[in-house]
Design goal:
Elements: H1 2-32, H2 39-60, H3 66-93, H4 102-123, E1 128-129, E2 139-141, E3 144-146, H5 148-170, H6 172-182, H7 184-189, H8 194-220, E4 222-223, H9 229-242, H10 247-271, H11 282-295
Antiparallel strand pairs: 1-4, 2-3
Transmembrane segments: 12-35, 67-88, 100-124, 144-168, 197-218, 224-244, 251-271, 283-302
Pfam family, one: BPD_transp_2
InterPro entries: ABC_transp_permease, BCAA_transport_permease
Length: 309
């Protein structure tokens, strides 16, 4: 039971990151019906940008506290990722809005490869060690152990996700986003500038990816040019699991996927008699994706919508 509780905590940490990334996927899909497969690489750019800024600050002020370094790195990563995602939308996706759906999908894969290549040129092929920004000594709550970094991941993710829900549900921009997602043409007749809404959606998604990238790098103490591929793919799985296009579904899907993966990694050796180790944990995410697509393609919280004539 103690092992199970500990794996649940680890799953919440992992699921919180997946949920943050999945929100970027689901927001863009909800408005444009577009899968932005370059989203995971925006996360990578955010993590590496934050790391570069942190190293720069440490070079000038070595005694800067870890909390301050994390805040400074995140503050630098967010605008960089927002500008990058807005640029991608303007150059790569906007000209293809009326094209067949396969065209923007292929373009998104191409953008992903370009971002990885540029990052490899700028930051190199090697893995970069992320300095330990928060204390490593785990805090104990009964049988549960959790590090300050893991606790920060859960708290920050919860605050960011709650703030996004408030923005979508309670603000003028949120109403415009929901109207555009429902029917862009009617929203335009009501005075909603769909282009501005789409740009804002890409910018918000990039900000979430930047935060997720910093948290991911801080939790695993590493960053490299291809680090966004697997988390991005799993976050897409989480978005599909929860119901892509549904904000609450992205959060639920991310948390469920994190729990399934963490618990599976903790027990896979026992289940398989030692044949498989914890490094096979990635299979759980994609097994879940296959099961969902077979039995409920619309996802847990997705709605079954008939095709329009």
């Amino acid at each position: 039971m103690e092992v199970l509780i500990q794996q649940i905590v680890n799953g919440l940490v992992l699921g919180s990151v997946y949920a943050l990334i999945a929100l970027g996927y689901t927001m863009v899909y909800g408005i444009l019906q577009l899968i932005n497969f370059a989203h995971g690489d925006v996360l990578m750019v955010g993590a590496l940008t934050a790391l570069s800024v942190i190293k720069l600050v440490v070079g000038f002020a070595p005694d800067t506290p870890g909390w301050t370094l994390m805040l400074i790195g995140t503050g630098a990563a967010i605008p960089v990722c927002m500008l990058l995602n807005v640029f991608i939308e303007r150059v790569a996706y906007r000209p293809l809005r009326n094209a067949p759906r396969l065209a923007p999908l292929i373009t998104a894969i191409g953008i992903s490869i370009i971002l990885q290549t540029v990052a490899m040129i700028v930051w190199g092929r090697s893995f970069h060690v992320v300095p330990q920004l928060l204390p490593a000594e785990p805090m104990k709550f009964g049988p549960i152990q959790i590090t300050p970094t893991q606790l920060t991941v859960i708290i920050v993710s919860a605050v960011v996700m709650f703030s996004l829900v408030l923005l979508v549900e309670k603000t003028k921009l949120g109403r415009a986003m929901r109207a555009t997602a429902e029917n862009p043409r009617v929203a335009g007749l009501m005075g909603v500038d769909s282009n501005r809404v789409i740009v804002a959606t890409f910018a918000l998604g990039a900000a979430l990816a930047a935060v997720a990238g910093v948290l991911f790098a801080a939790n695993y103490y590493t960053a490299h040019f291809a680090m966004g591929f697997m988390p991005g793919l799993k976050a897409f799985t989480a978005a599909v699991l929860g119901g892509i296009g549904n904000i609450y579904g992205a959060v639920v899907g991310g948390l469920i996927l994190g729990l399934v993966e963490s618990i599976g990694a903790g027990y896979i050796g026992t289940w398989t008699g030692g044949v498989l180790g914890s490094h096979y944990q990635d299979i759980f995410a994609f097994v879940v994706l296959i099961i969902v697509l077979v039995f409920r393609p619309s996802g847990i919280m997705g709605e079954r919508v008939a095709d329009r004539a």
